[in-house]
Amino acid sequence: MGKLLEVKNLQVQFDIFGAHVQAVRGVTFELNKGETLAIVGESGSGKSVTSKALMGLIPNPPGKIKEGQIVFEGKDLVANTEKDWMKLRGKDISMIFQDPMTALNPTMKVGKQIMEGLILHQHMSKSQARERAIDLLRRVGIPNPEKRVEEYPHQFSGGMRQRVVIAIALACNPKVLIADEPTTALDVTIQAQILDLMRDIQKDTGTAIILITHDLGVVANMAQRVAVMYGGKIVETGTLDEIFYNPKHPYTWGLLSSMPKLHAKTDKLQAIPGTPPDLSNPPKGCPFAPRCPYAMKVCVDQMPAYTHLSETQKAACWLQDERAPKVEPPKTIGV
Ligand code: SF4
Ligand code: MG
C-alpha cells in the first residue's frame, strides 16, 4: 500500500484569553491508499483538531500550526495559502462532519450544494453537475433522487441529511475522506446503515478514510489501523488486532475497559476516572500519569519515548522500558 498522506510532528496551538493551549503536541502518522485509519480518544484529546489541520481549517487566529508537516502526495500542505486549500478541499481531501445540520446550508437546495464542488473543481456544466448530483444521491441510498435534488435540508430526516453530507463529500472522488464522528448524532440503526455505506463506497472508489471517533464499536467495524490519542499526543498506534487484542498502553486499556461488551450482563460503562490534562499547561511527563493506576515517578518527570512493539505497533509508556515492573493488562478488556 502506498503512502498517501504523512503527518510529521504536527503541533497546533490556540491562543485564548492569554493562554497558549497546545491542542496537538507532536503528532506523527501516515495514511495509506485505500485504508481506514481510526483516530480514537476522549473529547479534548486533539483528534478533531488534528483532522481540521488536514483540511486547512484551523481558524487563525486564535489557532496556528506551530510546527510540523502535512505531506500529501509529496507536497507539504502547511505552507498552503487559503487559495491553495480551496483547490484541494472537497476535491482531494474531503470531510464529513458530525452534525449534518451545520454542515448543510439550510437555504440552499441539496442538489445545488452537491453541484457546487463539481462546477468548481471538475469544471462541469450545470446540467452535467445536476446529473451527477442525482447519481450521487442514488449512490448514498436516497430514494427518488430526481425529486429530492430539488429539496432543502429541512425536508430530509437526520439520517438522510447525513447521506446528503456524504454525497457532497464524495462528489469529486476525494483521495482522502475525513469523517469526524460521522454517526454520533444518529440513532443506532441509521448509524449502522451509514457505516455500511461508507464501507461500500470505499470498496468502490478506493478512498482512504480517517475516522475520528470515541466509539470503539465503530472502530472495530471500520478500521484496519488505529491511533489512540491522549493529551494532544498519539500514545499508541497499531493494527486493529494489535490495539484490540494486544494493547500495551494503560490508556488504551482504559478505553477498551469502558467499551460496552457484546455479552455483558450489565450495560454500565466503566469510565476512566479523572480528567484529561490542562493543555494550556501541559505536563512534562506522561499526560496520562495523573489517571494511570501504574504511574511511576519517572512517568511524572519524563515523557516516555515510543517503544516499537512490532512493525506496525508502538506505544509511548514507561512500562515498556526493560527496567519497569511487569504489568498485565486488566481482565476487563476482552471484546
Ligand atoms: Fe502510566 Fe507511566 Fe505508562 Fe504513562 S508512562 S501510561 S503514567 S505507566
Ligand atoms: Mg471532536
UniProtKB/TrEMBL annotation:
This is Oligopeptide transport system ATP-binding protein. Belongs to the ABC transporter superfamily. Residues 5-256 form the ABC transporter domain. NCBIfam families: oligo_HPY. It is found in: Cell membrane. It is a peripheral membrane protein. Gene3D superfamilies: P-loop containing nucleotide triphosphate hydrolases (3.40.50.300). It holds the Pfam family ABC_tran. One of its GO terms (molecular function) is ATP binding. Transmembrane segments: none annotated. The keyword Endoplasmic reticulum does not apply. Keywords: ATP-binding, Cell membrane, Membrane, Nucleotide-binding, Transport. SUPFAM superfamilies: P-loop containing nucleoside triphosphate hydrolases. Its main location: membrane.
